[in-house]
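Deliverable D4.2, example record:
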Amino acid sequence: MDLNLIRTFIEVSTSGSFAAAADRLFVTQSAVSLRVQRLEDQLGRPLFTRSKAGAELTPAGAEFEPFAQLLLRNWEQARQHVAIPDGFTRSLTIGAQTALWPRIGFRWIDAIRAELPNLAIHAELGMPAGLTRSMSEGVMQISLSYRPTLRHGLHVEKVTDEELILVASWPNPTLDELVGHYAYVDWSPEFLTFHQLHLPHLTNPGLSLDMGVLSALYIINRRCAAYLPARYVKRFLDEGSLHVVKGAPHFAYPIWSVWREDLEQDIADVAKKTLKTLIMQFDSDIACLRDLQ
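Output generated by the structure prediction step:
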């Protein structure tokens, strides 16, 4: 059976929409419809009831869903087991958003490897939707994200309370200097609400970036300011290429860890212990940043 058909079925089931599934899979909506139709033809039963509101599982679709998830999980477990390098006994795949690798992810890998030297580790970069899909399919066992999605077989835990802080590329910046030199970074609908409430004069600056922490690379080389995660910009603040805008409100943006429920317990225990230790070390850095605001 074509696993792309199974993956497409699961995405439509999870999102409740052929259009949303197409966006997540980076294919056209007609391609999603064709894949679902092929799967329905193979099973001999309709899997979704389609309407203007979206797509709902039929009784046959609901019955098939756990088998579809099991098929993907078994395939990924087999693939990962075969791919374990010589000299290692088990493997682990960890994913995270861009901002979470430099100050947390890389050090986390080092800590896990020190505790479990026979564990082969594969690290991936991803956006929240892609990380969730990889977790659901069993491709990935742990992920770090600012905006996780809970699905069957996964559980979510808060790692720490990250903050988005306002930084600028010139020394001693003030709120009064930002008009004409500000880039709005689209972090979430909640951030937009916060922004409209606290900084209404900057809500429509004429420049918006939907690039997450990569926005830092833009503002560093221009007279520009933006909201960025405190942990990510700490190194830029230390080297003097970015500066905190004093008096600017901060936005709570928690970091979450997502875990597959079938992850081997000893690996999960080590991963959670080492992550907790790292976060305790970095929380003191964030406390210092608050003193600068």
